[in-house]
Amino acid sequence: MLTGWWVSTWYERAGPFAIVAWVIIVLGSITLHELAHGWAAIWRGDRTPIESGHMTWNPVVHMGLPSLIVFAVIGIAWGMMPVNPARFRGRHDDAIVAIAGPVMNLLLAALCIVLGAAWVAVAGGYATPALTVSDNAFRDGQVFFRLAAALNIVLAIFNMLPAPPLDGSRILATFWPRYREIIEGPNGQNIALFSLIVLLYFGGRYIYPIGFDTAISGTQTLAHWMTGGRVPLP
Q1: Cα gap 5→75, rounded to integer Å
Q2: N or C: which end of the chain has fewer CB within 10 A?
Q3: What CA–CA distances, in Å, run from 42 to 53, 97, 143?
Q4: 1 has a pLDDT exceeding 50
Q5: How far apart are the first and last CA of the chain?
């Protein structure tokens, strides 16, 4: 009965550590993504994130019950930060607030690639042989940093796609009034749902490989540079 459940599948293929790592990474990444929207909105004059109680580190507040249920079942989730564009100071502030989330994901991905490379260089004994850790600990560290980097790259790319309710649609609507009229019109919800399904179905085939390939090659290449070539290139 649990053959298709993501926890069961991950446990069989990657072990319990990968499951724990994924939960931590997803909750942390979504929380920081949404907080970035909130910080940007406050900076641009909108205190809605504060007034609604969403400027918190609690992932449950950002994700909500439906997202948590979906995460428990299939391992993916989403979040939401309430903002009020009418309170922004500038005409392009909606785009600034929207892009803050993907920018946060890119910063997290870069940080995880750096930390992952340092882990490979140090824990793998390439920099200082005396600091070498066990094979299991070394592998778990690699799994954590690569998963974190890959997920945040995927989140950054996916959220920049121009389909409501993704951040990319808000950015495009800021600079293209006709697009805003379409997505806010009577057929906007149907168009948004159709676009999102198409992007999820077709985009995932390309976005996920880009995220994981970039995370692995970036970590390995940086570790190669850190150790003066002792870590092999990917």
Answers
A1: 9
A2: N
A3: 13, 9, 35
A4: no
A5: 38
- Written as six digits, the tokens of 55 are 């400027």
pLDDT digit string, tens, across residues 185-234: 777 777 777 777 777 777 778 898 999 999 999 999 999 999 999 999 98
Which residues does 183 contact at the CB level (< 8 Å), separation at least 6?
Answer: 164, 169, 173, 191, 192
- Tracing tokens 């190669």 back to the chain, one arrives at 224
More confident residue, 196 or 139: 139
Distance in angstroms (rounded) separating the CA atoms of residues 96 and 86: 14
DSSP 3-state of 75: coil
Nearest to 125 by CA among 4, 213, 223, 3: 223
H or E segment and range at residue 110: helix 93-123
> Residue 184 catalytic?
no
The single-letter DSSP state of residue 232 is P
Distance CA 232, CA 93 (A): 45
Q: How far is CA 65 from the centre of its chain?
A: 19
Distance of alpha carbon 219 from alpha carbon 112, whole angstroms: 8
> With contact defined as beta carbons under 8 Å apart, do 96 and 45 qualify?
no
- 34, 51, 181, 184: the catalytic one is 34
Residue 119, number of CB atoms within 10 A of its CB: 22
